[in-house]
Input
Amino acid sequence: MTGLPTAVALNHTDRGDGVPIVILHGLFGRLRNWQGMQKQLARDARIITADLRNHGESPWSDEMSYPAMAADIAKLIEDLDVGPAVIVGHSMGGKAAMCLALSQPELVRSLMVVDIAPVDYQNDYGPYIDAMRAVPLAELSRRGEAEEYLKANIPDQGIRAFIMQNLGEADDGLAWQANIDAIENGMPNIMTFPNFAGTTYDGPTRFVIGGTSDYVKAEHRQQIMSLFPNASHAVIKGAGHWVHAQKPAEVMAEISTFAVQTT
Output
């Protein structure tokens, strides 16, 4: 890791009072993925959800790396004066959260990582990017038309709906709100994890794992514990990688209990 990336000001929502909890989405997600859960959790805590860089309504940047995302989150925490905060991150957001905890632990009260490990992955998101690029947005006027084009390359309705949440409206018509170019160029960084050998985050850490997901495997436990020696694990039965979408009540219970225990 060399140099300090330039942080951007993340689009965010801030709701409730009490223990500050910052929630971060995954690749091609956005803060609205967590807003239903935010509304309920905000009855007992201060819940901040954010669009990560190049996603949703946050600024675009050519740099798409975990140190850059961690810098953005640090700026958000400092600007809102909520540090140290409980940080919850899913998938890519989980890696960004881990990077923040390992690089600036003073900002992290405790850490919850949802269905991702601090390791390199081989998942290929190229077909989704190609499918998004193949939609002739300039020729279309309705979201339904765009989804019809996606069907040819993304037959799974659930994944297609997830991708479609990135489609918005610009002054001249429909437009992808995710920075596809930066994400594609940054994919080698997104699929890996920075080298933090010799560094640990010693605060309370919870890994929440989808019971049918293969993102956090038994062979990852040694690497997890080497970086997060106070880590514990919870398996959500019947959930895949999108744990919070498939089992929201269980994930909310984990967040609530964990936040209370680490206050």
Notes: The radius of gyration is 18 Å. The chain has ten helices and nine strands. Residues 126-184 form one domain. The mean pLDDT is 94.
